[in-house]
Amino acid sequence: MNKEAKTDGWWQAFYDETPFELWLEREQKELDVTLDFLWQKLELEPDKLLFDQCCGTGSLSLPLAARGVRTIGVDLCQKFIALAQKAAADQALDCRFYHDDAFVFLPPTKCDAAINWWTSFGYDADDSRNLLMLERIKEALKPGAYFALDYPNVAHVFQNFKAKEEHQQNSPEGIINVIRETELDLERGLRKQRWTYHLPTGRTLLHQTSLRMYLPSTLKEMLKHYGFTDIKLFGDTESSDLSLDSDRCICLARRARS
Predict the structure, then answer these.
(1) Phi and psi, residue 13, nearest 5°
(2) Which residues contact 199 (CB under 8 A, 6 or more apart)?
(3) Residue 247 is assigned to a structural domain of this protein
(4) I need a labelling partner for 239 at 20 to 30 A (CA). Which of 4, 67, 115, 206 fits?
(5) DSSP state at residue 125
(6) Does one domain contain both 96 and 165?
(7) CATH number, domain containing residue 106
């Protein structure tokens, strides 16, 4: 991989230009476990208002709304928001989806809970930029409300590092072959990735991404900095303890009541 490859602002094109929405679909069993986890940990109830920061296609907002929660979602990918809005309209669900930048977007109403799910945090190499998303979450929540952040467990990434992985994904046009090459930039604390999509049409897409590698202890300190309390870390949506075997680090935190 080219170590000098430019990745600043990569997310502005990556999600719009690749068929990544296919990877946002979850098997029903996995989805149900995740929904149950969020319902319990965020103390959700019918008519409560949930803020879904970086909501994607609404893969969590929509089924939570089907359980009676009102949802507000934001995402920079216009294609994702269009799909989410159509699904909400088709199912007559109480969801509002906004095409906007999560670094600056605030819901029009204070929310009872919030999520940032499936690695939608840490995209910028500048920590101060990433922290803006936590600041927006704090501002969006009512005092005492819960927030859940789903992020890779960096210790697990180090222990199970793979420089190259290949995946296949079915699409309406046929099978998409994806090659993901990874480099760990330890000096800057970045996981750099080069994605090659071979589409059924014969077209090839090339994109480069990067993610800040925050240890669980660092995530806790970030949340504390913005006044979050009662911080707990989980290794999965079955409430397992965080360990080296956990590929995810789920942070559950509560906005201070005062």
Answers:
(1) -110, -30
(2) 19, 173, 176, 205
(3) yes
(4) 67
(5) S
(6) no
(7) 3.40.50.150
H or E element: which one contains 160? none
Q: Which of 151, 155, 130, 141 is nearest to 229 (CA)?
A: 141
Q: Is 182 a domain residue?
A: yes
Q: Is the pLDDT of residue 5 over 90?
A: no
CA proximity to 97, closest of 85, 87, 83, 115: 85
Letter for the amino acid at 114? A
**C-beta separation of 71 from 48 below 8 A:** no
**Phi, psi at 241, each rounded to 5°:** -65, 145
Strands 190-198 and 174-185: antiparallel
The DSSP string of 194-229 is EEEEE-TTS-EEEEEEEEE---HHHHHHHHHHTTEE
171-199, pLDDT tens digit by residue? 999 999 999 999 999 999 999 999 999 99
Whether pLDDT at 38 is above 90:
yes
Q: Both tokens of residue 232? A: 């707990």
**Segments forming the whole domain that contains residue 163:** 157-211
Neighbours of 149 (CB within 10 A): 27
Rounded Cα gap, residues 252 and 92, in angstroms: 30
Q: What angle do CA 118, 120, 122 make, to 5 degrees?
A: 125
Separation of alpha carbons 210 and 134, rounded Å? 19
Based on the fold, state whether residues 81 and 183 are members of the same structural domain: no
